[in-house]
Amino acid sequence: MASDLQQILERLNRKALNLTERYQTVLEEKNQALLRIAELETLVTTLRGRIQTLERQVEYLSVVTTAFPSREEMERSKARLSELVREIDKCISDLTE
C-alpha cells in the first residue's frame, strides 16, 4: 500500500512538473505575442499617419491640377501662339511690301 501511494505521488509530481513546464511555455508565448501586438499597433499607427499625409497630398494635387492647365494643354497653347505669331509676321511682311 505504501508503494502504491509512493507511485501515485511520483506520478502526481511528474504531472505537476509537466503542467508547470507547459504553463511556462504558454506564458512565454503569450508574452511574445503581446510584444508582437505592441509592435504591430505601433506600425499601424505609423502607417495610418502616412496614409493621412498621402491622402492630403492627393487632395492638394487634385486641387492644383484642376486650377492649372495640364502639360498637354500648355503645349497646345504654345503651338497655337506660335502659329498666330507666324501669321502676324506674315501679315506684317505683306504690309511692308
Sequence-ordered SSE layout with sheet pairings:
Layout: H1 2-67, H2 71-96
Order of helices and strands: HH
Name the average pLDDT.
90
Shape: rod-shaped
CA(first)-CA(last) distance: 138 Å
Largest sheet: none
Enumerate the spans where pLDDT stays under 50 for 5 or more consecutive residues: none
Count of DSSP strands:
0
Structural class: mainly alpha
Work out the helicity level: over 70%
Q: What proportion strand?
A: under 5%
Radius of gyration: 40 Å
Describe the structure.
The chain has 97 residues and is mostly helical. It has a domain at 2-68. The radius of gyration is 40 Å and the shape is rod-shaped. The termini are far apart. The protein has helices spanning 2-67, 71-96. 95% of the residues lie in helices and 0% in strands.
Key attributes of the depicted protein:
97 residues, mainly alpha
Short synopsis of the structure:
This protein has helices at residues 2-67, 71-96. It is mostly helical.
